[in-house]
Amino acid sequence: MMEKMFQPVMSSFNIEIPKSIVRALKIPQSNVICRLKEEFSLHLYSEGYLSFGKARELSGLSKWDFSELLGQKKIERHYSFENLYEDIQFVNEQQHSDSHK
Question: Could you state, in order of their start, the residue ranges of all structural domains in the chain?
């Protein structure tokens, strides 16, 4: 009989950063948590570990602000022809539904 292995599903977790590291950061102390979330989400997105939507959610930024941050950091958007096709379809559907109102 084969034993099934299950990993617990984490809803969230905390990362402990030593005070000496936090003090060494060249980030105003009042802004540390927000900036670390942004930097972490940018890294995970750039490495392909998170989608744009999930990385944006982790950062706490709006879609527009996260897009701008990607540009400022010169991180390319992961945008395929399939994404373009889906966006075009969405716009066409919106225009179609707007014309029937």
Answer: 19-99
